[in-house]
User: Which sequence fits this backbone?
DNA sequence: CTCTCCCGATCTAGGGAGTT
DNA sequence: AACTCCCTAGATCGGGAGAG
């Protein structure tokens, strides 16, 4: 086919796909070849096999319709003829009339069966729709129950409190009551959860400038910022472990999975805090200035 | 309304594996 | 050996949520 030729010229990558689709053994062409119309169909261009297949089907349907039409027309003609020619034989008339009635009965019965089938389909469809509505409402109910359960669970669960549960020591290790840094007992510091406590300890162990300019240890050579002092960071880790009685084996995992992210965010916030404050203050002062100038303008 | 904490998305650089 | 690609870890940014 001309179109396919131009297609292959235009899209080299599609060649394989085209070949497959034409040479596929499941192609309807093989079925078509065994049809009674095979001889007449030999004239059809072999390139356009798919089209010829549909063409056969169309032709067969057309022929059927044509035959039906012809039959109908002859019957109608016969009936008409019988009506218009009263001289014809009465017996012959009766035979023709009965033939006509027979055909109309056939058509009526076929219409009847078709309408029955349609009714059946309609009923089935209605049943299906009802079932679907029922199921969806059941699903909605189940989802509502699930939501309620989740709400109840989350309301009674303190995520931060239970998050460290897997890392708590279960071997009965004895933890010290005090961990001094200068004159401050680190274990005496307070915090709403382990994240809050960690931030407070870092604020005790390091100066504001250190927190603003450093990153978490161990740091990397390609980072511009230096890591926090390692000795004090060891103290920080000890404080965390003693305070929450965490297992020495699992502490590394606790630090990596739960704590580190909070700490990096904390350090970044330490850097941003002052900038934000300054920005807010400047905005405020600007607003104040504009207000004052407005007032001055009014009075002048 | 402000401040703080937190999270998802994105950026950056190193390191390993595979290819030329 | 040089290069590219992909993965990983950590830093950073933007913005939402909640407490006070």
Assistant:
């Amino acid at each position: 086919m001309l179109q396919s030729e131009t297609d292959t010229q235009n899209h080299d990558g599609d060649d394989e796909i085209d070949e497959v689709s034409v040479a596929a053994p499941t192609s309807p062409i093989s079925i078509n070849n065994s049809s009674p119309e095979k001889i007449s169909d030999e004239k059809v261009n072999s390139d356009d096999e798919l089209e010829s297949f549909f063409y056969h089907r169309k032709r067969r349907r057309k022929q059927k319709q044509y035959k039906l039409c012809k039959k109908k027309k002859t019957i109608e003609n016969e009936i008409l003829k019988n009506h218009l020619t009263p001289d014809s034989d009465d017996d012959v008339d009766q035979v023709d009339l009965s033939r006509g009635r027979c055909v109309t009965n056939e058509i009526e019965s076929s219409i009847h069966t078709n309408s029955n089938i349609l009714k059946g389909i309609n009923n089935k469809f209605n049943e299906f729709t009802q079932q679907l509505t029922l199921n969806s409402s059941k699903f909605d109910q189940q989802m509502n129950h699930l939501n309620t359960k989740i709400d109840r669970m989350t309301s009674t669960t303190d995520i931060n409190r239970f998050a460290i549960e897997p890392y708590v020591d279960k071997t009965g290790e004895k933890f010290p009551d005090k961990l001094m840094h200068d004159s401050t007992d680190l274990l005496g510091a307070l915090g709403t959860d382990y994240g809050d406590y960690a931030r407070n300890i870092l604020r005790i162990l390091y100066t504001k400038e250190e927190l603003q300019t450093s990153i978490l240890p161990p740091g990397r050579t390609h980072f511009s910022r230096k890591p926090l002092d390692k000795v004090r960071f060891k103290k920080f880790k000890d404080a965390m472990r003693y305070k929450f009685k965490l297992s020495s084996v699992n502490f590394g995992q606790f630090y990596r999975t739960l704590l580190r992210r909070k700490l990096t965010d904390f350090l970044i916030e330490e850097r941003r805090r002052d900038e934000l404050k300054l920005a807010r203050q400047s905005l405020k002062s600007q607003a104040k200035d504009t207000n004052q100038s407005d007032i001055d303008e009014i009075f002048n």
About this structure: Residues 2 and 165 of chain A are 74 Å apart (CA to CA). Residues 215-216, 219-220, 223, 225, 260, 264-265, 267-268, 271-272 of chain A lie near DNA strand C (CB under 10 Å from a C1'). The first strand of chain A starts at residue 180 and ends at 181. The beta strands of chain A are 180-181, 184-185, 214-215, 226-227.
